[in-house]
Amino acid sequence: MSSLTQDIRFGFRMLWKNPSVTIFAVLALAIGIGANTALFSLIYNVLLSPLPFAEPEEIMWVQTYWNHSGNRGSCSGPDFLDLQEQNTVFDNLAAMDMDCNFSFTGKGEPKALVGLKVSTNYFTTTLDKMTLGRSFLPEESSSGDRVIVLSHKLWEKLFDSDQNIINQKITINEEPYTVVGVAPSMMGFIEEMAQVYTPLKQERLEKNRSSHYLGIIARIKDGVSQQQAQAELDMIASRLTEQYPDTNTNKGITLRPLQEMLVDEIRTAFLVLYGAVGFLLLIACVNVANLLLAKASSRNKEIAIRGALGAGRFRIFRQVITESVILSIFGGCLGLMFALWGLDALRYLAPHGIETGSTGIPGFDEIGVDSTILMFTMILSMLCGILFGAVPAWQISKTKINETLKDSGRGTSFGSSRHRLLNGLVISEIALSLIILMGAGLLIKSFYNLQQINPGFDTNNILAVHMELPRSERNNDTKVRVSFYNNLIRNVSTLPGVKSVAAINIHPLTPNNSNNGFHFEGKPLPHGQGTHAEYRSTSNEYFPTIGIPLIKGRYFNQGDTADSKPVVIVNQEFVNRYTPNEEPLGRRIRLNGQLQEIIGVVGNVKLRALNAIGFNPFMYKNMNQESRHKMTVMVKTKGDPMALAPAVRREIWDVDPNQPILWMQSMDQVVNASISVQRFCMILLSVMAVVAFLLAVIGIYSVMSFAVQERTHEIGIRMTLGAQVKDIIFLIVRKGFILTIIGLVIGLAGSYAVTRLMEGMLYKMTATDPLTFIVVPLILLGIALLACYLPARHAAKTDPMITLRSE
Amino acid sequence: MFFKSKKEKQNQDQTDLSCLMQNDGPLISMRNIEKFYQNKAGKTSILQKIDLDIEQGDFITIMGPSGAGKSTLLHIMGMLDTDWTGEYHLLGNAVHNLKPKDRNELNKQTVGFVFQSFHLLDSLTVYENLDTPLSYRNIKSSERAAIVCDTLDRFGIVGKKDLFPSQLSGGQQQLVAVARAVITNPILILADEPTGNLHTKQGEEIMELFTRLNNEGTTIVQVTHSERNATYSKRIINLWDGVIRNEMHPAELEGKE
Fold first, then answer.
1. Whole-angstrom Cα distance, residue A531 to residue A249?
2. Which residues of chain B neighbour A318 with C-beta distances below 8 Å?
3. What is the structure's pLDDT at A802?
4. Which of the ends of chain A has fewer CB neighbours closer than 10 A, N or C?
């Protein structure tokens, strides 16, 4: 131990002796370790940490699967009830109606709360116990009792963790609700999307098999595999198809683990990011190894003396690697600080939904530095020290004692094996940084492609105001709802700066959807094909306000009232899919048990995200004929839409002072939110690429500088013999050019292999996009040559007599 | 099972050393030692057919012009140079047959080296420079501290123990180098131009120190150009162009003067 203490003491001294080298090495390592720690916290919490449910590996997500289109979606109430009754593979099956909004009044200003309506067995399916009180009772789905369960965070924030909250009454949707329970503390994204829970009414569950709006959670039985469960679901689906051909033809049921479903879309992206950050750390380590190797020649004498004094090779190796480990521990400590900043940056950049403001990504809100992450950082630091220290330490320990100690001669030279090693490290740096740069380049181009997409509507100068009328007795009257929204539209349209106002129940580019089955009057269903389409309720001015073009027929107008004939407008995709060879106008479809006439065909809009492939069929109903509690009011403005937000808010409260507003954003912000995951990945990867690039360029520069230093005598002689400045520059740059080219070739091969993993993250381009594969290497080549040119120019300007004299 | 404890290693070192000391023959016996460099121009001979015996307690000077191979011969004796042919016995051990690890062990136990350029470790204090060779010999830190203190005292450099080599004069540095060479109680000291970078008075002090050490039983082999330094020794070997030309007694040098 005492000799190890000696090595540690000496290690500190050696690092102090070369402050600039030490500082650079520590910084480079800190960046690599810090980035890895921050990303590891992300991966650990999002992909590896279990969901906060009892035995989370047993929880499955059940969805409707449309066989003819391959789409997955929500389930209908009657389908859910049949699944509950007929299955033998689940302990429990629970349903939830998501994105329900509740107005809470009676405690300060009215608040809009986001919550879930759940089947009464929801909590027994997912949790062990409640923090306070109880979960719902089975009879509460059919009794008239208004009961509510609070989320843990809401209970803490709004009710100050009141231990006596149970059985207290609170005003929700203008009605008194009894608090029966408080849920346990959950992950941030669950707390954000479920602030309150109320029971799904049995009556609603039994209605309308073609209305799909439920998410289903199932707890699989012990001993039952996912495959076995799926087989039974397939059987049940077939049975339902036979029993209900009108609504269940071509409708399957599918299940997968809930955790997998939640992280499916982001898993690849996050793993790619983590791979990139691993490369970044490698580059940092290679850079430091380069530095130590280049500095090794100045330590030849010291190492030779130690060898002459009896130090064996392993002892010398251990001493040098101890210095590396000390460096990396410093790097790790500073890296931890960088990681904390990095985590703050991740939270700031995190993709946020418009609806809840939360990331919607499980575990994201929990990223931080805990004991697991600390241990990861420590182990990573030690491994880095050994990784980048081993090669120089091994090289240094091979110092030839005899030759180094001889007093004659000009001093020791850098052996050829060390030169080869140095060159190899530079090549690997270039190759690795090219791979990261390539990934960033692809994402940047893909993001650019995304931004060029026409979503099908006008996003400029539109203020979107999302609200939901409280589900009170009063608002259950259709006329009241229609009157509220029509009055609001009329009032807002008189505001200065407003061009036009409209409303829709589910605006474009939202994660929510609502689709309904239908069929054409007098025409049997196509064999083996169910028909369904996205279903929306809009005000008269919706399409012109938001810029959706009219292709055929007409928009809604004042003549479309509750008492006039039921009408529907469809989109072009609906026509392409269901009436490709027939005139759609005038045809009638049976929808929700009612015949509706198609009066117009409008342009397509993107459903959930800009990068969605193709379009979905849509059916639009007039709000006067089918109104909703929840609507998004779209205000087309002359100038900045957010400038009108306060005025619009006033108009809303003029109509109803107790009406909560869920959110107000411009449509540009809504569009940006829909591609926030892509933006997040692009920004992160770009930052990493820039850092990797800088490290690689510094690496090349330092190696070239060292090479110039080594050749000072040779350069002096060449100049004495008549070499010009340009000849010297060419001599030095040529070496750097060769190393760079080799690195680029290896990097290109590596990029070709690695970027394929990103295929699913790219929009309208391949992972081997030719333009990216040409431009990025050229940029790296140019900068690398500049890094070689600078030391070469410096060397060429030296007076040869001075260099020769110094030798 | 596979690794010896420090105590076992120390016990083994002492056993090995006592075995070595029982050798009856000369301390150093060299037969037909040759060394050459191979380059594109051909073979360049550095040492040829060196036959040499050095008894324990001897004080030998190796002299000759520049490029004669003196330092090379010294480095071979000190087992710093391993690229040669011939037979070399040190304390009865056939060095030419030893594995590198065993050679290193033998070196640690028997040899102390003094260089012309001192070759102190610049980043270590005087105390630490003395401690370094002990730390490579599996000696406990408490014992090492005692040995270093004794040596500092013996060489009269206690007051300088916390200074760095750059803070010492040439003579003081060489004194520390000699102290470092003897601190492990080697039976053989090899000195390569020990006074080459010192002025006359400092050189004399070093030579008198060597004489004292030799009187105490340490075998000394020095390489020097200085005839004055050679007079301190008991035997002079003249090396010319890699070949031992002759041997003479220091008195013959004084006679020349």
1. 9
2. none
3. 65
4. N
